[in-house]
Design a protein that fits this description.
- This protein has helices at about 15-20, 25-35, 40-45, 50-65, 70-85, 95-110.
- The chain folds into 2 domains: about 5-45, no CATH class; about 50-110.
- The protein has 6 helices and no strands.
């Protein structure tokens, strides 16, 4: 008899329904099987918040600016064509640099 993972009653706190919406039954089963022997910290997955996404995005953009791959004006023009005015997105050059700095510090702490 083959047991389907979707028929099992996993604790709600695991939020496996999020993964089951995106992964096939077999993929989810494989992920769980490969991760089961790892410690709790290694199995934990936390999806990013909007603030985190904004910070990571700013880090990416400002890193390109710092490395001379683009300028704020070029990037701003490109994003304006796609998303409209940055002002409407509550997104300024100084906010971007501030979030870049914050993420840079976080990365340094993560690497220690």
């Amino acid at each position: 008899m083959k047991i389907k993972f979707s028929d099992l009653s996993f604790p709600k706190g695991l939020n496996l329904e999020i993964l089951s919406e995106l992964l096939t039954e077999e993929s989810l089963q494989m992920l769980i099987a490969l991760s089961a022997k790892k410690d709790r910290k290694s199995r934990r997955i936390i999806l990013p918040s909007q603030r985190c996404l904004k910070k990571v995005f700013c880090f990416y953009i400002w890193d390109k600016i710092e490395n001379g791959e683009t300028t704020w004006a070029k990037w701003k023009k490109g994003i304006k064509d796609e998303l409209g005015q940055l002002k409407n997105l509550n997104f300024t050059k100084w906010d971007c640099k501030k979030l870049w700095t914050a993420r840079k510090i976080e990365i340094e702490r993560e690497n220690k």
